[in-house]
Specification:
Strand content of chain C: 5-15%
Chains: A alpha+beta, B alpha+beta, C alpha+beta
Helix content of chain C: 25-40%
CATH topology of the largest domain in chain C: Ubiquitin-like (UB roll)
Strand order of the largest sheet of chain A: 4-5-10-6-7
Structural class of chain A: alpha+beta
Radius of gyration of chain A: 19 Å
Largest sheet of chain C: 5 strands, mixed
Number of helices of chain C: 5
Number of domains of chain C: 2
Largest interface: B-C, 58 and 58 residues
Radius of gyration of chain C: 16 Å
Distance between the termini of chain A: 51 Å
Strand order of the largest sheet of chain C: 2-1-5-3-4
Strand content of chain A: 15-25%
CATH topology of the largest domain in chain A: Uridine Diphospho-n-acetylenolpyruvylglucosamine Reductase, domain 3
Shape of chain A: globular
CATH class of the largest domain in chain C: Alpha Beta
Oligomer: heterotrimer
CATH architecture of the largest domain in chain A: 2-Layer Sandwich
Chain lengths: 291, 783, 161
C-alpha cells in the first residue's frame, strides 16, 4: 500500500518537464492529477524510478474557448464541470462526461489530458474525444505535433505519446450552431468504470438533416472505439426513429466488450445499442428535435 | 417519517443528541491507527497468491537485508512457540496463524515482517521469497462434499465435511410435505459477502515495564479476546490488558481474533518494542471474516387456500478453509432455526451441512444475528414463491399464516420461544403508510402498458440477545453481560459495561437508561466500554445483543443503586425504609409528596451523611437473560425496472420496525437507515466471488461495491412498540433487523415486477445484467 | 526531501521520502489523526482534506511532496475559535455520524460543496457526496446535516458589535 521508492522532480515549466522526461526516458512518468497513477503505484503495479510533477507548470493550466475548446494538460476535470459555458448546448457532450468521470472528489484533481494519456478501455474522456473529433498536442524531440484522437489512442493504456514525450493539451474543434451531444453511461455505482457508455455528438444542417455525427463507445474494446458505420448511416439523413435504431444496431455490432463482473458480452453489446439510441435522442432533444 | 418519540419520560425515549459526537466531529477520535507508542515498529504480512498449495520453502534472507527491517517470522517460528494454530471462536476447529506446510486460501497469511517504518515493512514483505507447489483447488461446497481432495489433513476425520446440524422433525415434515395439496421448492443461495467497515482491522501490541501485554485492538469483544489470548499464549490473564479504543464500524468483522493480531504480539515479545499492525483494505476483504454463503434448498407446503403445512430447509454451508464462524458453541449454524419466521408453521425441519473450501474463513458477520439473515431471506422468498404458485396475494398469504398476538409467548416447532409480537398491527400500519391500495392501482395501470413496477414485502421476525446461559456460550464462556454503576457525590456518575460500541451510540443510550432509572441528567452519566482492566466482564457487541443483555444489566444495576439510595433517602427523610417510595423521579414519603428528596441529594448524602448505611453509591449486575428477544417488522419496497438496461430503481422503501421499548428514537432510526443501506447493497451489488480456480475476484472497493449517497434510496421509517415481557425495560435489539429483513423486500419487489413475465426467482446480487437476461429469457420462453 | 506545508494555518517543515502519501504525512508527521484511511483504491473518501481552500482532495492519492507550498485544511481546522463549524453542528444535530470514521472526509467534501453551491438540493448533495462512502448511516442523516449547515451558512453574519 506504500509505493516503491522514486525520485521526485517538480517542473516549473513545460521545458523543464520535457527535459526531465527526456533524461529519464522509460523510467519516468508524468504526474498530473495522479488519480490513476498513484493508486497503481500504491499496489506497486507501476514503479517509475522518477515522477515528473507538472502541477506547478502554470502555462499548462488553462481552458480556452478559441473557436474550439483547448484544455491544457493540468486543467482539472472539475474546472470543465464548473466552467461558465459548460451548459451551452454545443458543449453538451463534455457537460455530460464531466459529471460522470470517477467521482466528484477525484474530479477535483484528475485531468482531462491525463485521462486521455492513461487510455483506460473504459475511459470517459477518450470516448468523448473520439465522438467530438478532438486532437492532442504532443511535444516530442522534433517539436510539437497535433495528433488526431483516432491515431492518439493506440491500445489499452497505450497512446501516441512515446518515451520522453509529453502531451500538452487536447483540442476539441468548434462545431458552430446546431451542435449538441450526449454521454450515456451505465455504471454499477458512482466511481465504477463504465459497464457500457456511449458518446454522441450531432451537428445539424439548416434543413434539419444531419451534417456531422460522432458516435463512440467506451468499454467496448481495447480502447474507446468509434462507430463509423453509425456515423455514416446518420450523416445526410433526417433524424427518425428508424435511423436511430439503425445507428444503435451498428453500435451494438461494433462493440467488442470483455465479459467481466460488470456484465456479459451480450449484455454489454446490447447496452451499447441502447445507450447510442438514448444518446442520439437526447442530443436531438437538446436541439429541439423529436425523433 | 420517523420513529415515534416518547418524550414525556425522563430520559428513555428522548431523541437525545449523542454525547460521543464532539470528539468525532473534531477529528479527535481515538482509533487504533491513531495510537503511537515510543519505539513502535510496524508489521506487514506476506500472503499467498495461491488458493491451495504446499509451501516448499520460505527465504527471508533478502527481506532481512531491507533497510529498517528488524525481523521476519513464519509459521515454523510460531509452531516452535506453540502458537502455530489458534482456536476459532466456535471452538470446534482451529486456524493457522501463519501457514504451516501449506496454504488453504488465496491471501492466507504466510509470514510477518517487522520494520521501523510502514514503508520498510511493505518493502520487506515484498522481498520475502516463497516457493509454492500448487495443489488442486476445491472452490465450492458441492465439490468439497465429494471428498476427492481433502483440504484439512490436520483434522482427525479426513473429510471436508465439518459438521451436520439439524433441528425439527424430519419424518413428520417429510410426510406433511408429501401430503400437502400445494408445494413449492427453490434453491436459494445467499451469496458470500463481507461487512467491510470503513476502518480496517488492526492492533498495537506492547509489553510494558511491568511485563503486561498492553493490547489495543479493533475488537467487538475485548474481554473474550483477553481470555482467548491468555489460553493461546499462556500469558496469565491478569498480565493481559486488552483495550478496544474507538472502532470505525464493526458489523461482525471485528469479532474473530485474526492472525495479524497474534503476529503483532509475537513481534512485540520477540523484539521488546511495541508493534503496530494495520491491515489494508485488500487484506480486510480477502482474509477477514466473510458473511453468508449458504446454499439453501427450501420447500414450503400449504393447503389449497394457503395455510402453511410444512417447511423443510436443507443447506450446504461454505465455511472456507477453517471453521472460523463465530457462533455460540451449541449452534454451529447459529440461529438458523428461526427459519419459520413470523409464521405459525405446524411442522418443520432444518439442517445444515458445512464444508471446507479453499476460501477465506468466517461466515458469521455483517449484521447477521448468527445466520438469521440467511433464515429470514429463505422464508420470506419462499412465501412469495408460494403465493405465486397459489395465485394468492403475497400480503394475504402472510397475514393468514402470521403467529397471532394471542399466541405469544409462542413456541416454534424449531425450538424458539418468541417473547412478544403483534405482526398484524405492524403490517397494517405499513400498508397504510405506503398507501398500498393506490400502489396496486398504479401497478395495474403500468402493467397494462407493459411497464415493470414491483411491490415487495418482508415481514420478518428475528432473534437477538444471545443469550441464556442454558443454551449459549462462546468458548465455554456464558453469554451474560454486565454493568457497573457508580454515582458520585454531586449526582454525576459512571457506568461501565461489558459491551463495546462501534458506532451504536452506547455512550448516549446507556446513560439514558441510568438517567431514567435514577432521575439524573444523562449528560452527566459517563459511559465507559472496552477497557478490560476496568469494565466488568462482558461478551461484547454483535448480533444486536447489547440492549437485550447489557441494557438489562444496566437497568438492574441502576435499580440496585436505587434500592440502596432509598435507604439513605429514608435516613434523610427520617422515616423507615418501608415508608419511602420512588415516584416522579424522586424519593417521597408515602402519602406525603411534599416530603421528598431527589437522587442528587441522596447521592451527596451517600458520601456525607449516609447514616447507618454503607457509604458510597454503586452497584453491579451480571445479567443472564431468561430468553432471547424477537424484534420484527414489515418492510415494503417499491421498484421500477428499466427493461432495456436491467436497472432497478428503488422508488420507495418503508421500514416499520418493532423493537419493543425504544431508548433513543434518533439512534434507532440511524441504525435502521444504515442497515437498510447494507441490505440494499447485498440485494443489488455485493458479492465476494471466487472463480473455479479459487481466485478472489472482489479484492477491493473497485469490485466489492459499497453504494454511495447517490445510489442509496431514501428510507421511510416508522415503528410499533410491543415490549419484551422479560426485559427490564421491555427493549429488544434492533441494529441487525434492517439487514435481516430488507434483502427479501428488495428481491420480492423485483420478482413482483417481473412476475407478469412468469419469473419466479432471481439470485442476489440482482445486477443489471441478470435482470436484463432474466427478462429476455422469460420473453423468449413465452413466444 | 524537504517539504513545507501549511496545515490549518500552521507551517510544517519536514524531511520526507517522496513516496510518503499526504494522508500519512498529516497523520504521522503533523500528528493530526482526524484524516483517516479506509481503502486502497481511492474509493472511500475517508482521507479527504481541503487543498488551497477550495479543492477537496483524497490525501491517500497524493504525495506529501505534491502539497509542498500549498495550504491544507483537515477536519481539525474546521472549528474556529473553539466553536463548531455549522457543518459540524449539522452533523451533530442531525445524527449524521455513528462510528465517526467517514465523518471528517465527509464534512470536508461538504465544505467544498457548499463553498461552490450554497443552496444545494437533496439531489445535489447526494451527487456531491458520492465520492465519500459511509457504512453506518445510510446517508440520509448526512444529507440532512448538510442541508442544515447550508441553511445556517446562508444566514447573514451578525453585525459586528
Amino acid at each position: 500500500m506504500i509505493p516503491a521508492a522514486f525520485e521526485y522532480i517538480r517542473a516549473h515549466s513545460a521545458d523543464e518537464a520535457f527535459a526531465a522526461l527526456q533524461k529519464h526516458g522509460a523510467e519516468a512518468r508524468v504526474l498530473a492529477g495522479g488519480q490513476s497513477l498513484v493508486p497503481a503505484m500504491r499496489f506497486r503495479l507501476a514503479r517509475p524510478a522518477a515522477l515528473v510533477d507538472i502541477n506547478a507548470v502554470r502555462e499548462l493550466d488553462y481552458i480556452r474557448l478559441d473557436g474550439g475548446l483547448t484544455i491544457g494538460a493540468t486543467a482539472r476535470d472539475s474546472a470543465v464541470e464548473r466552467a461558465p459555458w459548460i451548459k451551452d448546448t454545443t458543449w453538451s457532450l463534455l457537460h455530460d462526461v464531466s459529471r460522470v468521470v470517477a467521482d466528484p472528489v477525484v474530479r477535483q484533481m484528475a485531468t482531462v489530458v491525463g485521462s486521455l494519456c492513461h487510455n483506460d478501455p473504459a475511459g470517459d474522456w477518450t470516448t468523448a474525444a473520439l465522438a467530438a473529433r478532438a486532437e492532442v498536442l504532443v511535444r516530442g524531440r522534433s517539436g510539437e505535433r497535433a495528433v488526431p484522437i483516432d491515431e492518439f489512442l493506440v491500445d489499452s493504456f497505450t497512446t501516441a505519446v512515446a518515451e520522453g514525450e509529453i502531451a500538452l493539451a487536447v483540442r476539441f474543434p468548434g462545431s458552430g450552431d446546431r451542435t449538441a451531444g450526449s454521454y450515456q453511461k451505465v455504471e454499477r455505482k458512482v466511481g465504477d468504470f463504465a459497464t457500457a457508455a456511449a458518446a454522441v455528438q450531432l451537428t445539424l444542417n439548416a434543413d434539419g438533416t444531419i451534417k456531422a455525427a460522432g458516435v463512440a463507445l467506451s468499454a467496448a474494446g481495447p480502447c474507446a472505439v468509434r462507430v463509423p458505420q453509425a456515423e455514416q448511416r446518420l450523416v445526410g439523413q433526417k433524424p427518425t426513429a428508424d435511423l436511430i435504431r439503425a445507428a444503435a444496431e451498428a453500435a451494438s455490432q461494433k462493440s467488442e466488450p470483455q465479459a467481466d463482473l460488470r456484465g456479459s458480452v451480450e449484455y454489454k453489446k446490447h447496452l451499447a445499442g441502447v445507450l447510442v439510441s438514448r444518446g442520439l435522442r437526447q442530443a436531438l432533444a437538446r436541439l429541439g428535435v423529436q425523433a | 417519517m420517523s420513529i415515534e418519540a416518547k418524550s414525556e419520560r425522563h430520559a428513555l425515549g428522548h431523541r437525545m443528541k449523542r454525547k460521543e459526537d464532539p470528539r468525532f466531529l473534531q477529528g479527535k477520535g481515538n482509533y487504533v491507527d491513531d495510537i503511537s507508542l515510543p519505539g513502535m515498529l510496524y508489521a506487514a504480512i506476506v500472503r499467498s497468491p495461491y488458493p491451495h498449495a504446499s509451501i516448499k520453502n520460505i527465504d527471508i534472507s533478502e527481506a532481512l537485508k531491507v533497510p529498517g527491517v528488524k525481523a521476519v517470522i513464519t509459521g515454523a517460528d510460531l509452531e516452535a512457540a506453540g502458537l502455530g494454530w489458534l482456536p476459532t471462536f466456535h471452538g470446534l476447529d482451529k486456524q493457522m496463524v501463519l501457514a504451516v506446510g501449506k496454504v488453504l486460501f488465496q491471501y492466507q497469511e504466510v509470514a510477518a515482517v517487522f520494520a521501523e517504518t510502514r514503508a520498510a515493512a511493505y518493502d520487506g514483505a515484498e522481498a520475502v521469497q516463497v516457493e509454492y507447489e500448487p495443489l488442486p483447488v476445491v472452490a465450492d461446497p458441492f465439490t468439497a462434499k465429494k471428498d476427492e481432495v481433502i483440504l484439512r489433513p490436520d483434522r482427525e476425520k479426513k473429510t471436508n465435511h465439518i459438521y451436520h446440524w439439524e433441528v425439527g422433525d424430519r419424518d413428520a415434515t417429510a410426510r406433511a410435505l408429501e401430503s400437502s395439496p400445494k408445494r413449492v421448492s427453490q434453491r436459494i443461495w445467499f451469496q458470500r459477502c463481507h461487512p467491510a467497515p470503513l476502518e480496517p482491522c488492526g492492533c498495537v501490541a506492547h509489553f510494558d515495564t511491568m511485563g503486561r501485554l498492553q493490547f489495543y485492538v479493533t475488537s467487538q469483544a475485548p474481554h473474550v479476546y483477553r481470555t482467548a489470548l491468555a489460553i493461546v499464549t499462556g500469558i496469565p490473564e491478569d498480565k493481559i490488558h486488552v483495550i478496544s479504543p474507538d472502532i470505525g464500524g464493526g458489523f461482525g468483522n471485528k469479532v474473530p481474533v485474526y492472525p495479524g493480531y497474534v503476529c503483532a504480539i509475537v513481534g512485540a515479545l520477540k523484539l521488546g518494542r511495541p508493534v503496530k499492525w494495520i491491515e489494508t483494505r485488500t487484506e480486510n476483504l480477502t482474509s477477514t471474516g466473510f458473511a453468508r454463503d449458504y446454499h439453501m434448498d427450501v420447500e414450503l407446503g400449504a393447503s389449497a387456500d394457503g395455510r402453511l403445512t410444512a417447511l423443510r430447509v436443507s443447506t450446504a454451508a461454505d465455511h472456507g478453509a477453517f471453521d472460523a464462524a463465530a457462533d455460540p458453541t451449541k449452534y454451529p449454524a447459529g440461529m438458523f432455526g428461526v427459519v419459520t419466521g413470523s409464521y405459525d408453521v405446524p411442522v418443520a425441519h432444518a439442517e445444515v451441512d458445512a464444508y471446507f473450501t479453499n476460501k477465506a474463513p468466517g461466515g458469521i458477520a455483517y449484521r447477521c444475528s448468527f445466520r438469521v439473515t440467511e433464515a429470514s431471506y429463505a422464508i420470506e422468498r419462499a412465501m412469495d414463491i408460494l403465493a405465486d404458485e397459489l395465485g394468492i396475494d403475497a400480503v394475504e398469504l402472510r397475514r393468514k399464516n402470521f403467529i397471532k398476538k394471542e399466541q405469544f409467548p409462542y413456541k416454534s416447532v424449531l425450538g424458539f420461544t418468541y417473547d412478544s409480537g403483534d405482526y398484524h398491527k405492524t403490517l397494517d400500519l405499513a400498508l397504510e403508510k405506503i398507501g398500498y391500495k393506490a400502489l396496486l392501482e398504479e401497478q395495474a395501470e403500468k402493467r397494462a402498458r407493459g411497464e415493470l413496477m414491483g411491490i415487495g414485502f418482508s415481514t420478518f421476525t428475528e432473534v437477538v440477545g444471545a443469550g441464556p446461559s442454558k443454551h449459549f456460550d462462546i468458548l465455554g464462556i456464558k453469554m451474560f453481560d454486565s454493568a457497573e454503576i457508580r454515582i458520585h457525590p454531586t449526582g454525576a456518575g459512571i457506568v461501565r459495561a461489558g459491551t463495546k460500541s462501534q458506532g451504536q451510540g452506547h455512550e448516549t443510550t446507556w446513560a439514558q437508561i441510568v438517567a431514567e432509572e435514577l432521575g439524573l441528567d444523562p449528560q452527566n452519566i459517563m459511559v465507559e466500554e472496552g477497557d478490560t482492566d476496568t469494565a466488568p466482564y462482558g461478551l461484547g457487541t454483535y448480533a444486536s445483543r447489547s440492549t437485550p443483555v447489557a441494557g438489562a444489566a444496566i437497568a438492574i444495576a441502576a435499580r440496585r443503586v436505587r434500592e440502596k439510595a432509598k435507604k439513605i433517602a429514608a435516613h434523610l427523610l427520617e422515616v423507615g425504609d418501608g415508608d419511602v417510595e420512588w415516584k416522579d423521579y424522586k424519593f417521597q414519603v408515602k402519602g406525603v409528596p411534599a416530603k421528598s428528596v431527589t437522587m442528587k441529594e441522596v447521592a451527596f448524602a451517600a458520601y456525607t451523611n449516609p447514616g447507618p448505611n454503607e457509604p458510597g453509591l454503586e452497584a453491579t449486575n451480571y445479567y443472564d437473560p431468561p430468553n432471547m428477544t424477537f424484534p420484527y417488522g414489515t418492510y415494503i419496497a417499491v421498484v421500477d425496472v428499466d427493461r432495456e438496461t436491467g436497472e432497478v430503481k428503488v422508488r420507495r422503501f418503508l421500514a416499520v420496525d418493532d423493537c419493543g421499548t425504544v431508548i433513543n428514537p434518533l439512534i434507532v432510526e440511524g441504525q435502521i437507515h444504515g442497515g437498510l443501506a447494507e441490505g440494499f447493497a447485498i440485494a443489488f451489488m455485493q458479492e465476494i466471488q471466487y472463480d473455479s480456480e479459487g481466485n478472489n475476484l472482489n479484492t477491493n472497493f473497485t469490485d466489492y461495491l459499497l453504494p454511495t449517497s447517490l445510489e442509496t434510496p431514501h428510507w421511510e421509517t416508522a415503528n410499533t412498540v410491543t415490549p419484551s415481557p422479560h426485559h427490564p425495560i421491555g427493549a429488544k435489539g434492533v441494529g441487525e433487523s434492517p439487514n435481516v429483513g430488507s434483502p427479501a423486500a428488495f428481491v420480492n419487489a423485483v420478482i413482483d415486477a417481473l412476475s407478469p413475465l412468469g419469473v419466479r426467482h432471481i439470485e442476489m446480487p440482482v445486477t443489471r445484467d441478470k435482470v436484463w437476461r432474466t427478462i429476455r429469457d422469460a420473453e423468449a420462453a413465452r413466444k | 526531501m524537504k517539504v513545507s506545508i501549511r496545515v490549518n494555518g500552521v507551517a510544517y517543515e519536514r524531511d520526507v521520502e517522496p513516496r510518503t502519501l499526504l494522508a500519512y504525512f498529516l497523520r504521522e508527521e503533523c500528528h493530526l489523526t482526524g484524516t483517516h484511511i479506509g481503502c486502497d483504491t481511492s474509493a472511500c473518501g475517508c482521507c479527504v482534506v481541503v487543498m488551497d481552500g477550495d479543492k477537496a482532495v483524497k490525501s491517500c492519492t497524493m504525495f506529501a511532496v505534491q502539497a509542498d507550498g500549498h495550504e491544507i485544511m483537515t477536519v481539525e481546522g474546521l472549528a474556529q475559535g473553539g466553536a463548531l463549524h455549522p457543518i459540524q453542528q449539522g452533523f451533530w444535530d442531525q445524527h449524521g455520524l455513528q462510528c465517526g470514521y467517514c465523518t471528517p472526509g465527509m464534512m470536508l467534501t461538504a465544505y467544498v460543496l457548499l463553498g461552490q453551491n450554497p443552496n444545494p438540493s437533496e439531489a445535489e448533495i447526494r451527487e456531491g457526496l458520492a465520492g465519500n462512502l459511509c457504512r453506518c448511516t445510510g446517508y440520509q442523516n448526512i444529507v440532512k446535516a448538510v442541508k442544515q449547515a447550508a441553511e445556517v451558512m446562508r444566514q447573514p453574519a451578525p453585525a459586528a458589535q
